[in-house]
# Entry
Amino acid sequence: MGFSMLFVFLFLMIFGVPLYLSLLSTSLFGILMLGDLSLLRVMAQQFYGGMDVFSLMAIPFFILSGILMNRTGLTDRLLDFSRLLVGSVRGGLGYVNVVGGIILAGVNGSAAADASALGSILIPAMVKDGFSPPYSAGLTAGSALIGPIIPPSIFMIIYATMTNTSIGGLFAAGIIPGLVLGGAFMIMNFFYSRRYQVPVSDFREIRKRKKEILVRSLVALCAPLIIVGGIVTGVVTPTESGALAVGYCLVAGIFYTRLLTLKMLAESLYETVRLSSSIFLIMGAATVIGWLLKWEQVPQRFAGFIIEAGLIDKPWMLMIVLSAVIFPVGMFMEEVSTLALLTPIFAPIALKAGIDPFHFGVVMTLNVTIALITPPMGAVNYIVAAVGRVKLSDVFIHIWPFIGVAMLVLLAIISFPPLTTLLPRLLNL
# Structure
């Protein structure tokens, strides 16, 4: 039955059926194969139940705060701050790209949003500064990967919701890996800049305006501090933190930057509803198919295979094997669906093997995130190619070194669990 459902799902996907409909249709096919039509009532309950989760309410707030940051000019102020910090060295705009990705990661938790914000501004500037267009797009895509790792993270919210893991603890677990990933891309930019003799940018104008930039940036920097600081310290819940960030961006957009208009707010709300709705529909549909797989004891059978292979006693090897499944699935499937389908199967196995839930949550999130820049799907590649006006074929050809760097970071995180467990323990999360 499992293989038949997989064939139906792939068939529907190939013919362009929307993802949530493909998942629901596959579930319906599985119920018809079982021959128990009474399960249709349970199917409706599972679909609604997959969306009716309180912690998921944080997702629309984080999406809206990120959109408002971009539309009210706060993102531009953060990028100016990044230029002031690291822009006056050889390959400076490359470092600005990565630092900008780290700072923006503390706002919306979406790789796609970060890629759009960074790419539209920095890719043309990097090309003008002497970087090749494919490299500029690739580094922007790599920097966007930091978004779902450093809190807040939409992927981590989904994982934590499905495993009853502390969202604050998981967010804290992602901070060091996110910084390590950013550091790895900075090292890559260092060697690229020297190999191709990228000229040192003229940042005299930026330095002349350093006091103005610092003052302007302080207001923008408060948004990630509200989100990350509030959650990690336990002062507010993720949902409350997202709501506070939205309120702060509204106030800043109206009274400080004075760029927020009613039309802009309406467009931002519409975009938030559109993006949130797609995530919630996929979550509901994936919950249905996940329930059906549990009904057929697929997770138990997979766990039995893991135990028979002796991997349950080798946590490091188990993480490698599970990553070898998660990553290719994420390459061909929407990331929210990948998390929603595989988390109920893999998380209990990892827990049984003695792997820290925060550690595995970060590893799973990073696997799915790297798939965002991996062909043939690689949604972030399409975004940077479009906003940076770079040929998509060039992006696909030159993205592999960035994938390689991200995979090395993933291997380092798997090999050294304290990278993810240190902060949650220090903060008693």
